[in-house]
Specification:
By secondary structure, this protein is mainly beta. 5% of the residues lie in helices and 51% in strands. The chain is built from 4 helices and 31 strands. The strands form 3 sheets. It has a 22-stranded antiparallel beta barrel. It has a 5-stranded mixed beta sheet with strand order 1-7-8-5-6. The chain is globular. This is TonB-dependent receptor plug domain-containing protein. InterPro entries: Beta-barrel_TonB_sf, Plug_dom, Plug_dom_sf, TonB-dep_rcpt-like. Keywords: Cell outer membrane, Membrane, Receptor, Signal, Transmembrane, Transmembrane beta strand, Transport.
């Protein structure tokens, strides 16, 4: 039996079981009032922040090939492509990646606290260059409120990835655990192998090693046409250790190193596929490395001290060489002299190195009847960029102080936040500049005690000048500025429609204004200076003691380029969309789900897109006893009806029908 037939059989069987909706109810159980343990994903009704957590179970359930495929189901998050590490980017609330750049600095990505990704690399996507097998949790914060502990200039949002620990497999007990995962996808003949070895010599010391190799050929869209010219091979590995010590085990030291790379030959320079063959092809080597050293001190009986000091180093390196004869512009065919050896961009080697030290303390205390959860910290960031043929090199050094205090009194929680940041930026061939900014915000939430709560926030941030703009002096003394307001309502209650059920709802409206923009121009190269985004995000989850569950989220957004004299639709505005998941669990043994994702038609003159409705089926089987205990089998059908469509912000079609099968076992 082929993998394709096996996946189809499992899904057909699973779908039939789900549609049967067995009448026999499972034993009832109590659910946490905030976290819906029986739904696919929790709705964070306990906070004013627009936050979504994709946990390890959902990461594995989605059988994702890239990090992008883990977060595209979060309301407000859209992808610029996303099925390959190259030529992919993340857009949150209208900001982030574009069809020209993989990043605009308005969406931040962090791995265990380390800041990763590049600045503005022309037609190269780089922020997603890592493998989902390395991670146990992905947190997405949408908007600015809730990000001041993590950085400045975060307008669209923040994605935080947390890597796996040995104790996640050993349960904190001394011994060895080995986990082997094999995955196959029919579209593009994609396969992956992930091996994890966890070892705890004793309860205070743990080590983890992971090696993942992922390979994917050229995928086909719903019409049977190839997507792009090349697939990819992506080896990734990680080593991680932790030592806990002290009489009360109050001290710990953690060290980790991860490495992901690819080596492509004779592939298009333009990874977004928007310029046909004008730039030609390149040989491209990409390598992403992250090293993190963390010390934590959490003394027992002292709520005023919970200290962490994190030193991180992230490097992203891209080496490129033009392939002679691959550009349609050679010989002056495009109406201008063709540079010998290719365009400067096609021979540009890029290297970003970001070193960051963050010292942060959490203090829990009370002043009268007012409770405090106060996080304060100091941060030093040094970013270096290699001088390239097409982009300036230099050094960006920053110091920052931040303070965030969750103050609670009865049902009211107020959270003021401040961040002050200074900058010294320059390069060998460029002048030095000094900048600083004070930013912050206030969020509030009031819980009425009957399941209902209202919340809101106001936040202001500044995106200080970047190394990429050193060649434009006017931009080096002007920061991009943004103000965001949010207002919402939530509901979280058990036994709403039936005994033992659980319902969570959250609706968030937002309005973001950005001015002094330095990172966008029109097609006619006219600078864009002002923009406005507004939208509504909806989230809901409902579960029954019988194991049935429904998850729902939707996003409605409107964006406008408000630059004087231009006024047009904002190019990063995502399509209105909604996503519904229907599922049934049989305890920890079996989980079947059907996901429907719909995107509305967009009538923008410069980037129209048709509506689309995509169906995804998933099944997870985990025997709890017998010979197969510890084994997990996952099967899925993505784009089940083989729809041929291109997502609104994407530059290439989405993959057609894909059967996926994953086998995993922990020994």
């Amino acid at each position: 039996m082929t993998a394709r037939h096996m996946a189809a059989g499992l899904l057909a069987c699973g779908t039939a079981m789900a549609l049967a909706w067995p009448a026999a109810a499972q034993d009832s159980f109590s659910l946490d009032p905030v976290t819906l343990g029986q739904s696919k994903r929790e709705v964070r009704t306990d906070t004013a922040i627009s936050e979504t957590v994709v946990d390890e179970e959902e990461i594995e359930d989605r059988q994702a090939t890239t990090i992008a495929e883990l977060v595209d189901s979060v309301p407000g998050v859209s992808l610029i492509n996303g099925t390959t590490p190259q030529g992919s980017g993340i857009n949150i609330r209208g900001f982030g990646a574009t069809s020209s750049y993989g990043s605009d600095q308005k969406v931040a990505i962090q791995v265990d606290g380390a800041s990763v990704g590049s600045e503005e690399l022309y037609r190269i996507g780089t922020q997603l260059f890592t493998d989902p097998a390395l991670y146990k949790e992905v947190t997405v914060i949408r908007g600015t409120a809730g990000t001041f502990e993590y950085g400045s200039g975060i307008i669209g949002g923040l994605i935080r990835l947390d890597t796996k620990d040995a104790s996640d497999f050993t349960g904190g007990e001394p011994g060895f655990k080995l986990r082997q995962t094999l995955q196959y996808g029919t579209n593009g003949d994609a396969w992956a192998s992930s091996t994890i070895l966890a070892w705890q010599p004793d309860e205070n010391l743990e080590f983890l090693g992971n090696y993942t190799y992922r390979s994917q050929g050229v995928q086909k869209d719903g019409d049977g046409n190839g997507i792009g010219d090349e697939g990819f091979d992506l080896p990734s590995w990680m080593l991680k250790g932790k030592y806990t010590f002290g009489e009360a085990r109050e001290h710990s030291v953690k060290l980790s190193y991860s490495d992901t790379s690819s080596d492509e030959k004779d592939v298009p320079y333009d990874t977004f596929g928007t310029t046909t063959d004008m730039f030609g092809n390149v040989d491209r080597k990409t390598r992403s490395k992250t090293a993190i050293l963390e010390y934590a001190f959490d003394p027992a009986g002292n709520d005023l001290i919970n200290l962490t000091a994190t030193l991180s180093y992230a490097e992203q390196k891209i080496d490129q060489d033009y392939v002679p004869g691959s550009s349609s512009c050679e010989g002056g065919a495009c109406g201008f002299p063709f540079p010998p050896g290719g365009f400067p961009t096609t021979n540009a080697d890029h290297r970003y190195e970001t070193t960051k030290l963050t010292v942060k303390n959490q203090a829990l205390f009370a002043t009268g009847q007012l409770g405090h959860d106060l996080r304060t910290g100091v941060e030093y960031v040094r970013k270096e960029r290699l001088d390239a043929n097409s982009a300036p090199g230099g050094t960006d050094k920053r110091w920052a102080l931040f303070a965030v205090d969750d103050m609670s009194f009865g049902g009211l929680t107020l959270t003021p936040a401040l961040r002050y940041e200074t900058q010294d930026i320059g390069g060998d061939s460029y002048a030095d500049y000094d900048n600083d900014a004070l930013m912050g915000g206030l969020s509030a939430r009031y819980a009425f005690g009957n399941g209902w709560a209202v919340f809101g926030s106001a936040a202001y941030t500044e995106n200080l000048p970047i190394i990429d703009d050193l060649g434009t002096p006017a931009y080096m003394t002007r920061s991009e500025k943004a103000r965001t307001y949010e207002l919402g309502v939530s509901y979280d209650r058990g036994t709403v429609f039936a005994e033992g059920d659980d319902l969570a709802l959250k609706a968030t409206a937002y309005h973001t204004t950005v001015w002094d923009i330095t990172s966008y121009t029109t097609d006619a190269m006219v600078p864009i200076t002002d923009a406005r985004m507004k939208g509504l995000e909806l989230e809901a989850a409902y579960s029954l003691p019988s194991g049935h569950y429904v998850d729902f989220n939707a996003n409605i957004a409107r964006g406008e380029n408000t630059t004087p004299g231009i006024r047009d639709d904002w190019e990063g505005t995502p399509a209105d969309d909604l996503r519904v998941t229907l599922g049934k669990r049989w305890g920890e043994t079996l989980d079947l789900s059907w996901e429907v994702a719909h995107a509305a038609e967009m009538n923008r003159s410069d980037k129209p897109s048709d509506s689309s409705t995509v169906h995804n089926l998933r099944a997870t089987w985990r025997p709890q006893e017998g010979l197969f205990k510890g084994t997990e089998i996952r099967a899925g059908i993505e784009n089940a009806f083989d729809l041929d469509y291109t997502p609104h912000l994407a530059t290439r079609p989405a993959p057609g029908r894909t059967f996926k099968l994953t086998l995993a076992r922990t020994f």
